[in-house]
């Protein structure tokens, strides 16, 4: 990867480590400002969840040169779709929508059935690949830095999330500026700054994805327990943040 800043000169893994150490000492606004000033295209992908809304609020409030994108999978909750428009209006920003290709959806339905993701892990991963991973690849075309809303407290699988890491599959730096924020800090920021959030959060949905694949959680369950609830693997992910899944889509 071409160096985009003096801090990023020694190879991708060293670059990520140096950036990780520097981000650790900054607040959220400082973290976003730092990476947005490196040069090159910086993309933030939002699911419109509460943590992502915090990042969008900072980007919009400080007018940072960061592209905001969302994966409009075709199966999102109506509340999520409405929040896209509300957020654009409140912060006077454009949220770029990336949708799956009709040919990919048709091919998936022919092989597995439209809701075949309930039948096997293979089918569910294939659906996520069509509706999320392939649109993500388009969203990140030409990007030097990818910003996400990953937090360590979201699940055991994300407990070691760094502030910055090198995504070898996509050949870019991945920045997680909320890695050390807990849910209470997120809620406090939202309340103090009037950030619009998905009303589903108040109905027991701390993590919101596609409507057929998301349920409210029960008391005491982890934040992401409502995602793909019919599967038994406690570390289940859609593949956006799992290198092996990204590599499989890239190979296609």
Structural overview:
The longest helix has 19 residues. A hairpin with a 4-residue loop joins strand 5 and strand 6. Strands 3-2-1-4-6-5 form a 6-stranded mixed beta sheet. Helix 6 packs across helix 8. Helix content is 39%, strand content 11%. The protein is α/β, with parallel strands linked by helices.
Question: Which characteristics define this entry?
Answer:
252 residues, alpha/beta, six-stranded mixed beta sheet, disordered C terminus, APS_reductase, Adenosine 5'-phosphosulfate reductase, cytoplasm
In short:
With 252 residues, the chain is an alpha/beta fold.
Count of runs of 4 or more consecutive helical residues: 8
- Strands of the widest sheet, in order across it, are 3-2-1-4-6-5
Shape: globular
Spans of at least 5 consecutive residues whose pLDDT stays below 50 are: 241-252
Helicity range of the residues? 25-40%
Protein structure class: alpha/beta
Instruction: State the end-to-end CA separation.
Output: 23 Å
- Summed over residues and divided by their number, the pLDDT gives a mean of 89
Strand content: 5-15%
Largest sheet: 6 strands, mixed
What topology does this entry show?
Layout: H1 12-24, H2 28-36, E1 41-45, H3 50-61, E2 67-71, H4 78-91, E3 95-98, H5 102-112, H6 121-139, E4 143-147, E5 164-167, E6 172-175, H7 183-193, H8 243-251
Parallel strand pairs: 1-2, 1-4, 2-3, 4-6
Antiparallel strand pairs: 5-6
Main location: cytoplasm
Family: Belongs to the PAPS reductase family. CysH subfamily.
Active site: 238
